[in-house]
Q: What sequence folds into this?
């Protein structure tokens, strides 16, 4: 019985997922899930982990890490049922990768004594990508005329499914490693002003949308040059706005919808003094 197993043993969690996915006796909801159907939950759980960290709530962090681990187990179980791979393969893959990417920790004596050179991580990842591409290529096609031997492009490694702010930051960071970047932050300020000017000159909705995107992309670049994470600073701004707006709502005797703009502005200025 699963109820009698040690709940802190990873094998127990794997057994729970196997039982939930049993087509005859499992949970109907769990049984019908696919990789794609649980993807939103995987993303949501990752963000809830971040939220717990931002709130410095260690009890919640423990729970949320468990929820995120469940997503890994869920995906691995679906893959096992489809004969792709299982949870042990997932663990083996990440263990192998971590050892390979840290020769200065796990390598031989000579490798452990070498200082990390610039671009070390990117070089290792590029080698891994080339190796993976070679393994996927049909036998006998590598190097043959007419075969798809196109080399991987630098920015192709940035997942298209990342949140837009994070993806913009990663695209810019990777491009900057080639030297394609402003030498100092003054260039970003100039670009920001240029984008604002172009937004003001936009003449239709399509142009406005395009210029707004360019403006936001430049703001991400500005954030990167300051050494901050755009997702994190925007979350902080969201939290600050919510706190101040909540203060407005709590301190007002009337419904906010009944107040005019000067009254709302007065409440806002009061809220700013408290948050």
A:
């Amino acid at each position: 019985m699963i109820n009698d197993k040690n709940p802190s043993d990873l094998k127990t969690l794997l057994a729970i997922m196997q039982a939930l996915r049993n087509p005859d006796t499992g949970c109907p909801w769990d049984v019908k899930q696919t990789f794609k159907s649980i993807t939103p939950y995987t993303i949501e759980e990752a963000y809830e982990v971040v939220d717990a960290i931002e709130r410095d709530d260690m009890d919640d962090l423990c729970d949320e890490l468990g929820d995120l681990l469940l997503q890994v187990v869920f995906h691995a179980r679906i893959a096992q049922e489809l004969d792709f791979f299982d949870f042990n393969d997932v663990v083996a893959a990440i263990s192998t990768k971590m050892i390979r990417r840290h020769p200065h920790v796990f390598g031989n004596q000579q490798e452990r004594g070498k200082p990390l050179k610039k671009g070390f991580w990117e070089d290792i990842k590029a080698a891994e990508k080339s190796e993976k591409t070679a393994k996927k290529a049909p036998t006998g096609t590598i190097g043959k005329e007419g075969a798809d031997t196109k080399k991987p492009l630098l920015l192709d490694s940035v997942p298209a499914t990342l949140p837009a702010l994070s993806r913009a930051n990663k695209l810019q960071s990777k491009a900057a490693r080639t030297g394609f970047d402003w030498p100092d932050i003054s260039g970003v300020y100039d670009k920001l002003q240029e984008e604002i000017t172009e937004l003001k000159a936009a003449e239709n909705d399509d142009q406005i949308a395009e210029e707004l995107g360019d403006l936001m992309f430049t703001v991400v670049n500005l954030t990167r040059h300051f050494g901050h994470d755009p997702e994190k600073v925007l979350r902080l701004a969201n939290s600050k706005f919510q706190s101040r707006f909540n203060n407005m709502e709590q301190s007002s005797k009337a419904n906010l919808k009944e107040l005019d703009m000067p009254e709302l502005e007065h409440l806002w200025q009061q809220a700013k003094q408290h948050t």
